[in-house]
Amino acid sequence: MNETEAARRDRLRAETMARRREILAGLEATEGSKAITLIHRKEPWADEDDHITVEDSEFVLMQIRHTPPGRPIDLILHTPGGLALASEMIALALKGHAARVRVIVPFYAMSGGTLIALAADEVLMEPYSILGPVDPQIAGMPATALLRVVQQKPLHAIDDKTLILADTARLAVQGVKAFVGWLLADRMPAAKAAEVADLLTGGYITHDTPLTMAVAQNLGLNVRPGIPPAVYDLFSTCAFGVCKRPCLAQYDGPGVAPEAPTHRPSWE
Questions:
Q1: Hey, which of 80, 137, 166, 190 would disulfide with 246, CB 3.0 to 4.6 Å?
Q2: Predicted confidence (pLDDT) at residue 94 exceeds the cutoff of 50
Q3: Is the pLDDT of residue 46 over 70?
């Protein structure tokens, strides 16, 4: 990339970020809230899009921490998912905010994005917006599928690595199910919260199954239409080129399984 191209990208980035600050300031003035964004879309000056990372959680946590306890938060969320730890950290921070927390999903918030949305007091969606299951993925494979392997095959026919991954999968499913149940505990009756947590984490549907606004409402989640127009103005500043489909993305690299389950599960 020559110097002229670098300068063009720097100028485009500065102009785009200024426009975004203007849009968010207008949204905050209209809604009386602190507007925070977690949008994974290809930037006009970049070559690739992204997913939820620990760096994302650090940025969002700082934004939440600097929001006065009495000021509502609007989190604009658009992501195919990402690292489990990062999603958990953001969900915990939103859950602990004293004022009203609203998550706005104009298009999709899959996997770890859905986990974050479950921490909100209210979720705004369109009829065609989607959430998704939050069942953990271990080494690029559904955790519940790994558990079924060790249940259906004789022990002598299973290699050690698969057994180790299956044990990690068992712990991951238990952990995320408990976490989802805790997020929902004060939103619905305990039995209903347990039922929803089991549905979203139990591997009954594929990881890329779309859960529309109507489905989310039928599950008892506090979801309604009414996305502010400024949110779409914000998305007009993003590049709409090639973007990851919100489904099973690679976590450990194409076709590469980890030597040992030393990483956190991914809900990518």
A1: 80
A2: yes
A3: no
Domains of the chain: 3-235 (3.90.226.10)
Mean pLDDT value across the chain: 84
93 CB contacts (<8 Å, ≥6 apart)?
Answer: 60, 61, 64, 65
Tokens of 145: 């599928």
CA distances from 58 to 7, 24, 26, 83 (A): 29, 20, 25, 13
DSSP of the chain: --HHHHHHHHHHHHHHHHHHHHHHHHHHHHHTSEEEEEE----TT-S----B-HHHHHHHHHHHHTS-TTS-EEEEEEBS-BBHHHHHHHHHHHHH-SS-EEEEESSBB-THHHHHHTTSSEEEE-TT-EE-----EETTEEHHHHHHHHHHS-GGGS-HHHHHHHHHHHHHHHHHHHHHHHHHTTTS-HHHHHHHHHHHHSSSS-TT--EEHHHHHHTT--EE----HHHHHHHTTS--SS---SS---SSSTT---SS--SPPB--
Q: Which of 12-26, 115-129, 186-200 has the lowest mean pLDDT?
A: 12-26
Take residue 1 and report the two structure tokens written for it.
Answer: 């990339």
The pTM score is: 0.84
pLDDT at 255 over 70: no
Question: What mean pLDDT comes out for the span 158-163?
Answer: 92
- Contact call for residues 73 and 99 (beta carbons, < 8 A): yes
